[in-house]
Amino acid sequence: MDVKKQFLKYVQYWPWFLASFILFTAAAYYYLGAVSPTYETSALINIDKMSEKDSEIISTDKVKTDKEEDLEKEKVFITSNDFLSKLVSDLKLNINYYEKGFIDNKVILDIPFVFKTHISNDSLSKITYNIKVTEDGFFVNESVSDGLSLVRNKTIYDISGVPFSLELTSKAKKNLSNYLDKEYVVTVEPTELAVKKLKLNLEIASDENLKTNLSLKHTGTNPMQSKRILNKLIESLDEDIFAEKQKKLGKTVAYLNQRIAAFTKEKDSIESIKESYLRNNNIYVLDQYIATKTNEKTAKTANSALNDRQISLTTFAINDIKRAGNSPLGTDYNLDLPSLSQMLINYNSSLAESELILQRAQKNNPAYLSLAAQLQVQKQSILSTLGDYLNQLKQTRIVNRIEQSNAISEAKSIPTKNKELGNIDNDLSLKEETYLALLQKREEAVLNGAVLDSNLSVLDFPQTNYSAISPKPKPFMLGTILFSLLLPFGIVYVKLKMDSRIHTQEDLNGQLADIPFLGNIPEIDANEKLDNTATSRSVIAEATRTLFSNITYLLPHSKDQLGKVLLFTSSIQGEGKSFCAFHNAVTISNLNKKVLLIGADLRNPQLHDYYNVQKSIPGLSDFLYNSSQSWKNFLVKKSDFSENLDVLFSGEIPPNPSQLLTNSNFEILLQEAKSFYDFIIIDSAPVQIVSDTLNFSYLADVTIYVAKSNFSEKSNLLQLNDFIKKGQLKNVGVIINGISKKSAYGYSYNYSYQEKKVKAPWFKRSMAFNN
């Protein structure tokens, strides 16, 4: 994007920008002086809520937490309707005083009268009074929805028809002349509306670093009133906090007395419960009770374990003896049965003796058989003894398990009884601690009530920042200047975006980028229109010379010396094709070239105007209609423009121009003319209106398509590509007619060959004068 060109597009509208800048800047300057600026007044207070912990009944945590320090409750209270309504009533914020202005009423501090209402604030309706101080009293103009009613009073104090009275201040009585004929505005509104306005202008915020601090801000046009509002707000808040603390302390002391009496009864009841519990459970000393029951459980468990071990060993011994067969029996079964060991030893001795007999004799030996029978008797006796012992052990196990279960049950009940007794002790201890704490809190509450003070402290008293927050002069002026430039810029931008017409060559780049651009024809006035002689230095002469130079590059190269046909056409009527055809014909003829200018626009001929002849003069249509006559007979030669220029006018307007232009007579004319002329210039009809030009366009060597600046639509040129693609127009070049002498891109056609006189510096002029 060419930034310079884009910039120059907007620069040509500099009067718009200048007018907008002057208008808006003057309006902004006047506005800043006419309206009352808005200022911000701020104060900082601290509310130490932790100091209230001393009077609380139960304090669970001494560490300050964010929740404890949060002042949301106070912020809600300050912005409540009840609190602000009292503030409005005390300060009479529902009555405002102004000095009448043209744009806006200005807040004033020096009010010459006292305004007193006769009815309650809630009964007031929103109304505005215009008041003038006169020598006789006051002149009141009441502005209401149903019209204006003028009331003049004869006394200073009472005015009939209005719910208020007026009285001059002592200062105004001394200097009445200073206030005469000044008009003041008094607005009266109900309390509810005044509270809403106060809420909008009041800002309460917590300090980010220390949440016990509250920042109070009020914005308004009257700094003195803003200070009064904040001071009154702090005073009222301090009084409410003090009253709330007194009320809280009274309730605290009453509640503490009630709870102390209740806890005295509860403590006595718990002590009686503990005494009954110890008696019912035979507990004299809890530690001795626990030791006794624990030892019993241990002993019973050990006896049961020993008995179970003997049963296991006895069972093993019986099974082992049964499996032994004729083998020796074990003698160490660890049984608590002394007679068993001797019986085992006797059995093993008899078994050894039988084995010796068997070694010397056979199994049928009487001695062996007698000894074998004895061994069976002995083994049976051992098993019988073990069986009796096992039965005895099992009976003992049943008894042991019953005793063990009882001991375990009593041992298991120890924690429960300990817990129950502990709970009783804990309840008793808690009641005693709470009882003592309540006694202490009651004493503290009584002491706090004796030295009660508010926990609100003012860190920063109300101060006004006299740098106005609305309107801010510098940002407001900068914004106004920016808007004054953006507004015409936006209008110009929309105008350029919505502009669908062709202005300069730049507009052709997107539509006809592949078609050669031949040049610009400047816009000229009537005096310059015919100034196109051979020696002319007019803008039209220079432009057409440049155009012809560019056309020569499009001419096809041929070895014959025949003349070239240049066809001038356009999209629609009024784009200046006849103008361009005529002046190019004059320019080429002044270059010592023989030129024939043909008016081929049979429907709307325009060349007659340049020669001041009638449109009925015979010409092309007459020849095409009747070729028996020579076309040369219809030529017009005038040396006013050039001796080398001949003109063949269009002739009388025929009823069938398309048929005439398509017969062979026109082609014959051109072939013959090429032998006599160097260039044949045809002024044809617009191609988008009629098809006349398209019927003979193939005869042209170069087609010059004319568009007019600030007139031709871009959409009209889109069809030119279709004509070229279909072969209806060939070897086409585009020119733009009617370009202003100082175009949108800053190019000037006011080029002059005359040397400008350069003014010499003052010191050189002085030297020349002296010489």
From TrEMBL:
Q: What start-end ranges are recorded for coiled-coil regions in this protein? A: none
Question: What are the transmembrane regions?
Answer: 12-32, 476-494
What this protein is called in its record is Polysaccharide biosynthesis tyrosine autokinase
Known EC number: 2.7.10.2
Top-level taxon in the UniProt lineage: Bacteria
Cite the GO molecular-function annotations of the record. non-membrane spanning protein tyrosine kinase activity
Please name the InterPro entries in this protein's record: Bact_polysacc_biosynth/exp, P-loop_NTPase, Wzc-like_C
Q: Which organism is it from?
A: Flavobacterium plantiphilum
Q: Does the keyword Nucleotide-binding apply?
A: yes
